[in-house]
Design a protein that fits this description.
Length: about 160
């Protein structure tokens, strides 16, 4: 399959795009894994993730870390960025945002393994950290610690 064939269905890469107004409207695109059959991990870090509290409509902020071991597909990074920023005007609790992102990636990519850590900054004095994982870490693949310390205030 030629590169032209591989990339002809991508709608965002290399072109002008419009910011989706909601996660439901956002399109996650995928590209073939050029190293299929080689076990390796991929990490995306989004230290400035934002969404809205569904009750107060106030902004919530998180540091997201997404790790996955691909099978046939990789997520196209521009589509992932647009998907994540589509939450800026989306009202949902921390748990729902974090788990929904993980499940959407799993549905799109069908990875061998995926985990997401949502390290949410405090509102009302309590930080909430949310974790979703599809199963045991695969053997033979180095999966680094997420390395995000729990919130310690001014400490």
């Amino acid at each position: 399959m030629s590169k032209d064939d591989i990339y002809k269905n991508l709608t965002m890469l290399g072109g002008e795009t419009v910011q989706p107004q909601s996660p439901e409207e956002a399109v996650l695109e995928r590209v073939p894994n050029p190293q299929q059959g080689t076990p390796y991990a991929i990490r995306f870090t989004a230290p400035e993730f934002t969404s809205l509290c569904p009750i107060t409509n106030q902004p919530d902020f998180a540091h997201l870390v997404i790790d996955y071991v691909p099978d046939e597909w990789l997520v196209e990074s521009k589509s992932l960025k647009l998907f994540l920023t589509s939450f800026r005007n989306h009202g949902a609790f921390h748990e729902d945002c974090t788990v929904s992102i993980g499940k959407r990636l799993v549905d799109t990519l069908k990875p061998i393994w995926l985990r997401i850590g949502g390290y949410w900054y405090p509102r009302g004095g309590i930080p909430i950290d949310v974790f979703y994982q599809t199963g045991e870490e695969p053997k033979g693949v180095w999966i680094p610690e997420q390395g995000v310390p729990t919130y310690r205030g001014r400490g």
